[in-house]
Amino acid sequence: MARCHLHKFGGSSLADADCYRRVAHILLTHGNSDDLVVVSAAGKSTNFLYKLLELKDSAQLWQQELQVLIGFQQNLIEQLLSNEQATSLRERLSIDKYQLISLFSQDELKEYERSEVVSFGERWSARLLAALLRESGVAASDVDSRTLLLADEGGVPQIMLVESRQRVRQVLNDHPNERLIITGFICANSRGETLLLGRNGSDYSATLIASLAAIERVTIWTDVEGVFNADPNKINDAKLLKSLSLDEANRLAHLGSPVLHNRSLQPLFDTEVSLAVRSSYASHTDFTLIAPKSSSASAPVVTNLASVSLFNFRITTEVSNLAELLAASGLKPLAHWQLAHGRVELAFTHENQQQVRAILESEVPGISDLLLREDLGLVALVSADAELYRRGFARLLSRDARPLFNDGLSLVTLVPCANVNLLTQKVHRRCAGPRKRIGVLLLGVGNIGEAWVDLFTRARTSLNKELEASVELVGLLSSKKALLKEEGIGLSSWKQEFEQQATPWLYDHLFEQLQALDCDEIIALDISASAELTLQYPEFFARGIHVVSANKLAGSGPLAFYRELKQQLGNRRLFWRYNASCGAGLPVQHALNDLHNSGDSIEAVGGIFSGTLCWLFEHYDASKPFSELVMEAKSLGITEPDPRDDLSGRDMQRKLLILAREIGHEIELEDIELNSLVPATLADIPLEQFLERITELDSEMLQQLQAAAEQNKVLRYVAGLDVIEGRLKAGVGLQWVDREHAYANLTPGDNVFVIRSAFYQDNPLIIRGPGAGREVTAAAVQSDLAQICRDLVQE
């Protein structure tokens, strides 16, 4: 039966006697009786051995330092083993000591002999751990990997896979049902001379032996819990990744991950071996599993390098040839950019700088004007779905950043070294941190509310994708009942949920419930016509809740109240948008703001802001009495239930006030002259009496129509605001207008807005279209909601 698990323990996991005991406990509780184990040198033993070589090279005394190192190993033996086991290891350690003394006593050490000196660290670790396991009553043997891994010599030893696989499987056959503790970091040439596998060689040993032995799982036990979506030492809310594809892990390692190493992952490709990264200090916690063949992308990971080597040069030959030459030398750039005028930029780690420079200067024809920069650092995001995060990442880049390099698995930029950490934090927060959750509270569940939910249902997926956030409906409110749900309200079942679960509400309780919702932001959509709700806007703002208003009453309320709301908006990052309150979906306020931002000055605003009044006067031609036309419109649902709400002109007066304030005129509603179509004698009587006496409107309206016709004009109910000789004149009422005027030829039910400015004098800017209706009003509310969401996700 094939063995299924290989464990690898690094030097930090074997730093002292307690660490050894912890490792033994892990092997006894998290493994099988025939597991393989690869170990590094204990603690700083390898560094100590290199220091001895340096002392030897510089003709300094090395004997005392050697005694310190031997003493460290003896102490580990004494603390961990009983007399019988300890005696055996002490004897072998004594032999090793004299062998080291013999090596250091030579005039000059060959490279193989220097490698043999360094190999003692791993050999001591393997012996000690095997002995400790045997003392715990389990079968265990230490194995010198120089007897397993055969390599060709070179700058980095190249493992002879066929011969090494035979040796590994022979050793496994010779030691069934026994834990084998194997030295990492070292191998041998065909003459049995010691070779070192280089930086992170023990991790490479582990994955290599696992692939040769067809092991199912490699677990690298280290001093961290696994791979995080950012460096937890730099990003406070970095999160552990539970899974990662091998391709993603490989790219992350190439970009300088402190946990994963590019070379260590290569043996896992084209195998079924999975790799786990776990903490030997907290073996009970979650960990990261790297799957060999994963089709799904992991959560994005943000990584950085404080500084890189950036080569900039002109090249006249094919860049692909250069890429192949560098790849053959194991020098794939971190990122590259094709610039203008035949120039190319390649980014590498500093440790590859000299080798890359040598190739560029001597082996590649057609290269000139070679420049090197070291003042830039790297920030990258790694994910198989990297393209999904490109827009959010790109928005964070300033002028001094390199454009995003995208290889399908990562997005990479370079910025000045001083900016690396700040940009890393921003990218993590935007792309890899918790998705911003924006809760939406719908105030009004009637016709427009229903239309908005339908629209939001269709738009939500693309909006969330664009924002890289989660916008959710969390509350529904009618005049009598409310439903708030932490987990969100189903968009396909909201009516049933509201009907079955909504409860009576009061404002104090409502605000407490809103405060308790687990949302980063809350946006209230006021599509009611409630004056009482409008009075609660200061409390919404005080609690950090943004507002979208189709309700006209706040924007056209008393000036002191309006100023208070604007002051609250200026005191913190709050948004209040109310485009739907005037013109429904027509971009009137957008146009006014754009003109202002362009340096224009608005001189006059006028128009027909009521779909009902537009319909009435487009149809009124005296072929039937005006009152009969009003009753027809009422039966079609064009007017309000009480037609006087339309005929009074008060609605248009409020809309004109909203626009006046939007362009900077701080006026009250009473400053706008109102000429109502409803005589004072009919204004305050009950609706039934008004409808009985509605024919009293006909005489005056007919006279107005005939008088206008005598001058070849038509009758329209118009709102207008103009600045004449520095004085503001604003009013709403009947006007006679030319038959060619913008007010004269509208589709019944439309609104029209005419804007005159310094830029638009003789030919005013005209905006016309449906100014009422559930769909267009819902669309205006959705547009304002989307814009607030965009503002909220900006840094």
Automatic annotation (TrEMBL):
Catalysed reactions, as listed in the record: L-aspartate + ATP = 4-phospho-L-aspartate + ADP; L-homoserine + NAD(+) = L-aspartate 4-semialdehyde + NADH + H(+); L-homoserine + NADP(+) = L-aspartate 4-semialdehyde + NADPH + H(+)
Query: By what name is this protein known?
Result: Bifunctional aspartokinase/homoserine dehydrogenase
Question: EC annotation?
Answer: 2.7.2.4, 1.1.1.3
Superkingdom classification of source: Bacteria
GO molecular-function terms, A-Z:
aspartate kinase activity; ATP binding; homoserine dehydrogenase activity; NADP binding
Pathway where it operates: Amino-acid biosynthesis; L-lysine biosynthesis via DAP pathway; (S)-tetrahydrodipicolinate from L-aspartate: step 1/4; Amino-acid biosynthesis; L-threonine biosynthesis; L-threonine from L-aspartate: step 1/5; Amino-acid biosynthesis; L-threonine biosynthesis; L-threonine from L-aspartate: step 3/5; Amino-acid biosynthesis; L-methionine biosynthesis via de novo pathway; L-homoserine from L-aspartate: step 3/3
- Aspartate/glutamate/uridylate kinase domain: which residues? 7-274
What keywords does the record list, in alphabetical order? Answer: Amino-acid biosynthesis, ATP-binding, Kinase, Methionine biosynthesis, NADP, Nucleotide-binding, Oxidoreductase, Threonine biosynthesis, Transferase
Domain Homoserine dehydrogenase catalytic as annotated: residue spans? 587-785
